[in-house]
Amino acid sequence: MQFLWSLFAPRRTYRYFARLDSAERCLAFKHCQVPPMGDGWVEINEIRPHWLHQPLPTSARLSPRIRRLRLHSALAG
Q: Which of 20, 29, 52, 68 is in the most buried spot, having the most CB atoms within 10 Å?
């Protein structure tokens, strides 16, 4: 019975973050529910290992405005 309840329970949403150095190169990735503590973390749309030690593409970053629009559209539907 617990399994059936788990099917309908809201899922925890995980977000993706990348830590950038002063030259905007990716140093690390993190997959968590809340933004990591500390400087240099930016929210990204996905994790791609080949971005490590490379400049992060601008298309990979999520702006706070885009994230709010997604949340709003998810709640409206």
A: 20
